[in-house]
Structure formats: C-alpha cells, structure tokens
C-alpha cells in the first residue's frame, strides 16, 4: 500500500482526471452563491448545479474538483463514529452531457487499481449496483471486477423527487479481517452494510432520467456523470488509520489540543478521545466557515458556527481546559490545509480574533448553563424526582451546548437519571423542523433544452455604444418554441440578436431597458429585461408592439438616462468596497450588491454594526475619490495578470480565462464585467442613507449618488429647518444647542416628577412596612405599588432588610401592561430552609410570568398586572402550607 499524505492524495485525484480532459475547478466558497435552497455547500455537485440544470454552459463539459463541504445533520455523532465530520472534502469528477458509463466506470477502476495511481489490490474492491441496471453490471465485469464482487442493491438509485435522477454504483474497499467486528453470519456483514470492514470510498451517479411531476422517469436528452469520493475516509486507507481522525488532517490538531489540556492524551481514555475528536472536527469547520465570510450569530449559518464553537468549548472543559483555547488551533488548521487552501493561513489573525472573542463570551454563558443545570438538579431533588426531563436536557444541549452525556454525568453525581428517550424525541422534532425548513425546490432543475439549442453567438457592444443601428434576431422564442416571427401586440417573447447594446443582468448590475425600432424608425418593441442564455448570449425579454421577424434588422436603443444612472452607482460600489476595506479592515468581503439607476445597495461581511464615525470616514473617502476626478480604466487581460495588478475577485467561479479589470485611479482595482463611468467626477456626489444588519455577520449599506443624493440632502436640509423652527432656534446652526437646552429642561422636570413620585411611594411603603402579618409562625409584609419598577423594589428590599421588619417580604409593582414581583427572605429563615426562589416560582404564574434568584432574594416579571392580588394571595397560601420545621 502506498503511503500518501492528504495533499498528495488530493492532487493525485485531480491530476488523474485532468489527464482525462477534465478542467480542475477550484473549491468554491462554503457559502452558496445564488442558491437559497442551501445553507452551506454540502457536496461537490452543489457547485455544479448551474451546469447540470442548463442555466450555464461550462467552458469544458468535463470537470473535476476537491470541494470543501459542510453537513451538520448528524452533529451528535461526531467523535463517536469513525467517519462523521461536519467539514469534509469531496473529490469528484463530473460530465455535463459528455461521457457516460462506458468511460466513467473504466476510469474509476483505473484510478483505484493502477500502480501509477492508487494501486489498490482489485481483490479488495466490491461494487454495488442498481438491480435493473444490467448495463452497469456488465461494464464493471468487462472492466475487471469479478462477478462475486458485484452486489445488486435496490436502494442504489439517486432520486430527490422531481428533476434529474438515475442509478448509481458504490465502491467499497475491504479493509480485511482485522476490521471485522461482526459475526460472519451477521446480516450487516457485507459491502454496503453497517460495518467497519467494508469502507465505502466512492459513489458514481449515472444521471439519465427526469423524474416528472406525474411520477414518470423519462430519459434525459443529455446524460450526466456526478461522483463523490470522501477525501478523509480514503486517506484513512492510505495511512492505515482506524478512523478518519488518526490521519494527518486531524492528528496535528489533536496533539495541539492535548498540549493545551490538563495532562490528557489521545488514546488513553475513550471519553477523552471523543472530546479530542469533537474539538478537532469543529475547529476545522469553524475556521473554514469564517474564512469564507460567515460569522457567529444567533441564526442561519452564524448559529451553526456558534453551536459548533460551544460544543467544542464544552468538550474542552472535559479535558480540563477552562479558558479560551480554540483560537490557538486556527494556525494548526491553516498549516495542514495550506497546500490547497492558502487563504486560511493568510486570514489566521482575523479568524483567531473572532473565535477568541466568541469563546470568552461563551465561557460566561457556560457558567450560566452550569448554574441552570444545578437549578434543574436541585428542583428535581426537592420534588423527589428521580430523573431530569428530556426537554430540560435538550434545552441545556440546544442553548448552552451541553451534550446529553455531560448532563447525564452531572445528574449521576447527584443520584439522578436523564430521560434520554424524551431528549431524543426533542432532537427528532428539531430535525423534523429543519427538514421542513429546507426546500428541495430549485435544488436541481431539468435543462431548458430550447435555450441550449441556440448556438448562434451574440456580441455585447454596450461597453462602447448604446445604440446598434442594424441588429438581426438570430432566435425568437414565443410560447416555448423557436419561431421566425413573434406574437402580436401586447404579448411578450424572448429574442437573441447577433449584436446588442443591452447589458444582461449580472454581478448585481440590473439589466438595461430600452426600445427596438424598425429601420424606418417605427417602435416595434420595448426591452424590459435581459438575462444570459446558457450558451452566453444576451436573452432579451421584450414587450411586442408590432411583430418581430428573423429576416429583418432593427435599431436597438438603450435608455441612456437609466444606463448612466446604473454606471454611476456601479462605479460607486467599487469605491465603497475599497473604502470599507480601508476603514474597517481587509477582512470585509462583498456578500452581494444591487446596482440600479436610482440607488445602490452593497452587502458585506463584518462582525458588528458600523459606527457613525466609521460610516462618516467611509463616505468621506468615497467622495474624495469622486472630487479627485480619477480616470476609470478597463483592461482586458488574464486572471493571473489581473491578480498581479491587485484586482479583487468577488466571486471566483464567475471569471473565465480573459477578464475585465476595472481601475479607478490607484484607489480601486477589481475584476468586473459591468458598466462604469469614464471618470469618478461623473458620479457627482455619494451619500450613505442607511446601514443595517441583514443576517449572520452580514451588513448592508444603501446609498445614493448624483442627483438623487443631492435631492436627499436637500430634503434633510428642509427637515432640519422645520426642527429649528419647532424648537425656536434663532438660526439653523444653533438647532443642536437649542435641542440640548430643551433636553436639560425635560430632564430637570422628570427629576422633579421622580422625586415627587418617590415621596408618595415612600408614604405608601411606610404604611405597608408598618403592617406585618403572621402566617404559620412567620411574619410577612406583602403589598403592591403602582408606577414602580424593579429597581425601586430592590431599594425597598434593602431598607426592609436593614430594619429587620419581618421574616418574609413580597412586593409587587405594576406599570402599564407590565407587572413585577420581588421576594426577600430573612437570613435566619434561609438557614431554616425557606427559599425566595421557591416562593417566586409559586406565585409568578398569577401574573403570567416566571423568574428565579438566590435563596434570600428572587424576582419575576409578567404581562398580567391584573393578577397581582392573586399573586399576593398565593404568597400567603404558600406560607400557610410550607413546613415550619
């Protein structure tokens, strides 16, 4: 057996298929682009969907990649099984309507068995196939796989519902008797069963049918190949590792974690080993996710990162690590993956800073979780329960990252069990909710063959001119048919011209609009949208006034005012992008944009809100470039030369061999296929109107340029004059001083009001404190106060304690639709076993609330002020029933 490193294995796979004519496609970002059906890129084929569904025609129909992917549907199994990871690399080769089974099967066998490549013993290979797919079986036999190593399995059919589907073959490697943990006659002891001996290494999908809405399987006109080979599990074979974790992808992380732990070492203790594996897996996922622009948050991708970080932190506690440590593992991850993913090391300092900040915040949360667990345990014991409920254990898991095992261990120390069945039921409900939230719609569409058939080229000339005098329709599409003449007035159809000045929507820039005229000057159609057809042509959606014909030529005119507005705003987004990097740091990445004639919108990655001072700096910096009248130049060159020029690539997978580099002086250099002004002075003015968060670590800036910016500032000026008049400022420039003066007056009046309210409250309190009652041998002061908040109740509780007025104090406060309760218990009564938290939990439901606290002081809030009398009555009843022992 060859000894290959992870880098050597990855490169060998790519080199093999490159020799077979495949284009090596770089690993795409983990954050899906233009695919709302996915939270993360979860497979190699996920990045190829645009080619398989026909929306884009690839430069080369043969492609190969090593794609980083994230799956978290089985997160609880990480560390407990040999091959569960949340981050993994999927090696794959893909054919889009090119080769099929006759090529894919022999190539797979060659890669696996040839001494030049993997060099595996053919006797160790077993292959499963779909029973009805006898063609595949015959091809495997012809290639060299013996009949007794071919296994028919009825589940070998890839199908996600409507869309492409087909049979598949799974290839297994026999690791030998040493890995055979099952009895020979065990029904799972076969390639494809649940066992450790036969390791699945490759899945080859033969996509040859379209699963229709009426549940039929029709042959696809273009058959496709989609394969997936897990790098981590194949590497475990080459490195003779019992699990994926004992490979060079994980062991350096595990060793570094051991060095940070409390004298814990991998391989000494099974429970510790699980913790080591969880940490190694999770830090890889966290590091790569942040490197690709995701940030910790309470929803979406950010929640996944936060959840993984919390699980890793909790497992670190199990290894005796009580302070932030995960951030120290980031450079280790970067060094392991440097060959294929150099960006991780380059961003190491930024990633470390984010993770450390998140860790330190969670350490305080973790303490809160442990406190909650103590409360749960104490409550169970006080009520003579023998177990912790499943929903409580799940809350600890879901909110604080406590694995069920950790809760079970803590509970066991106190003689309690955990309702594991209830926990699993809660977990399944969460999975069900997640499955319902994920939509298969749009996950893989069938190719629109009509557009694929249009091969005639269409030249975009809008960079140089906005009018084409004689453009000929090369294809007119009406009612999903290619016709020689369009439908009549009032209808809509699609048209491809041999040349066009109309920009097709791309990269955030909206499509051009305009008119189509006959050579005689008669308007025949209005262009309302332009998109890219699969073969790269600009596909115009037009509203017909008079029929268009393919044997005529037409004058195409772009709406110039509309187009110039788009140009100004597009160039402004480039200036804004660079200004954000300058002010906030190079970690900011564009996460989307919208360039329209009337305004621009720019989304970018950043961990927190941009301050007003930072926004002012950004705005000033952009306007400086506008006022400097920088020339805006476009250079067509290769990607490599563009990068040497310092061009920023926004979305790597959108660029071909030849790229357009747009330069605004020496300030901004970006790859871009859009339209721009010739000089920044044409933008006129730039004004930010809004900055807000739109998702996990994603911020959005909206801005105006030129006349819209001027009109916006004029409106702001009019509003300022109105305010000046309202506050009676002598001149507009003194508006702020006048507002400040009025605020001081209001503050003084409010202070006087609070003083009067406090005097009245003190009188009410004096009366309340002077009337203790005795219940079941204890003295109680109970009552409620109107227009009083919780802070005031705590002050009163301090007065009560200092004066030793009673054994128990119960105070209520109501303000509007809110109600508050406070319970205080004297020290001697706490020693006797009376707890304020027990009492507050008994009475809080009366105000539709809940709460807790320390034995001597507890509080609760609710939304039912009308229930306050019942709450006080419940307190008296509770004291009547509580033991006086």
Task: Give the topology.
Layout: H1 6-19, E1 23-24, H2 49-52, E2 62-70, E3 87-96, H3 101-113, E4 125-129, H4 134-143, E5 150-152, E6 157-158, E7 163-174, E8 198-211, E9 217-230, H5 231-238, H6 251-260, H7 270-291, H8 300-318, H9 330-337, H10 343-346, H11 348-382, E10 387-388, H12 390-400, H13 404-413, E11 417-418, H14 420-437, H15 449-452, E12 459-460, E13 467-471, E14 473-478, E15 481-483, E16 492-497, E17 499-500, E18 514-517, E19 523-532, E20 538-544, E21 554-558, H16 560-584, E22 590-595, E23 600-605, H17 612-627, E24 632-638, H18 639-644, E25 658-664, E26 668-671, E27 686-695, E28 698-705, H19 706-726, H20 735-769, E29 773-775, E30 778-786, H21 790-803, E31 808-815, E32 818-825, H22 827-831, H23 836-843, E33 849-853, E34 857-862, H24 868-881
Parallel strand pairs: 1-2, 4-5, 10-11, 12-17, 30-31
Antiparallel strand pairs: 2-3, 3-9, 4-7, 6-7, 7-8, 8-9, 13-21, 14-15, 14-16, 16-20, 18-19, 18-21, 19-20, 22-23, 23-28, 24-25, 25-26, 27-28, 29-30, 31-32, 32-34, 33-34
Helix pairs in contact: 3-4, 6-7, 7-8, 7-11, 8-11, 11-12, 12-14, 16-17, 23-24
Number of domain units: 6
Q: Mind telling me which CATH architecture of the largest domain this is?
A: 2-Layer Sandwich
CATH class of the largest domain: Alpha Beta
Beta-strand residue fraction: 15-25%
The radius of gyration computed from the alpha-carbon positions, rounded to a whole number of angstroms, is 34 Å
Mean pLDDT: 89
Number of strands: 34
Helix content: 25-40%
Family: Belongs to the class-II aminoacyl-tRNA synthetase family.
Main location: cytoplasm
EC number: 6.1.1.7
Organism: Fructilactobacillus florum 8D
